[in-house]
Design goal:
Elements (H helix, E strand, L loop, with lengths): L7 E2 L4 E2 L3 E5 L5 H8 L2 H4 L9 H13 L2 E2 L5 E8 L6 E11 L4 E8 L8 H15 L5 E6 L4 H9 L3 E12 L2 E11 L5
Parallel strand pairs: 7-8
Antiparallel strand pairs: 1-4, 2-3, 3-5, 5-6, 6-7, 8-10, 9-10
């Protein structure tokens, strides 16, 4: 039986070569609203563009979500560049899907002004490293809209393989939508 190191508190801040990945705070409201209010950003996300009030409500929950104790617990983490402290450029979502099966899920969102520079590859890679080295997880997956070429490319850069394509498996923004599943095992993470 797998042994997952839970409970586990996010070690904020987590620093990479160019980034700081940390828990969110209410002070992040303006930066997060700047991209979560955009229809182009929300096109493939499970929510419509959010109002400032909606982002504030979510931030209160996200700021309190610092511990992973079991199935369904999550982190919604702010990503900022080290050269611009305090300015959030995106976020990484991470949740325990099954502690018994040592499985988790990862997701991400990035402000369009910062795409194409490898920031999310770096941030998501840091979380995958933590998932395997510190939490002792066996498998991490990403569930994405298969039309989202940027996220599919990011999965590939992270070493994830495409495992499934479910056709019209969910009602998504007024129509049936597909889901693509990408995943990586601890033994495949370098």
């Amino acid at each position: 039986m797998p042994t997952v190191c839970l409970p586990y508190e996010f070690p904020t801040p987590l620093r990479t070569e160019r980034l700081v990945v940390r828990t969110m705070t209410p002070d992040d409201l303006d930066d997060i609203h700047a991209y979560q209010s955009r229809s182009d950003v929300c096109r493939y996300l499970p929510f419509e563009p959010r109002t400032r009030e909606e982002v504030a409500q979510k931030l209160a929950k996200f700021a309190a979500a610092t511990w992973l104790r079991g199935d369904g617990d999550y982190w919604q983490l702010a990503v900022e560049r080290q050269e611009s402290p305090g300015r959030v450029i995106g976020d990484v979502f991470f949740t325990i899907r099954s502690a018994d099966d040592a499985g988790a899920e990862i997701g991400w969102t990035l402000h369009p002004d910062f795409t194409g520079r490898g920031y999310m590859t770096e941030a998501a890679g840091a979380i995958l490293g933590l998932a395997f080295a510190q939490l002792g997880l066996h498998r991490v997956c990403a569930r994405i809209d298969p039309r989202n070429d940027a996220s599919a490319a990011l999965c590939t850069r992270l070493g994830m393989r495409r495992e499934a394509h479910f056709v019209e498996d969910l009602w998504f923004k007024g129509a049936w939508g597909d889901t693509a599943i990408y995943a990586i095992l601890a033994s495949e993470w370098s």
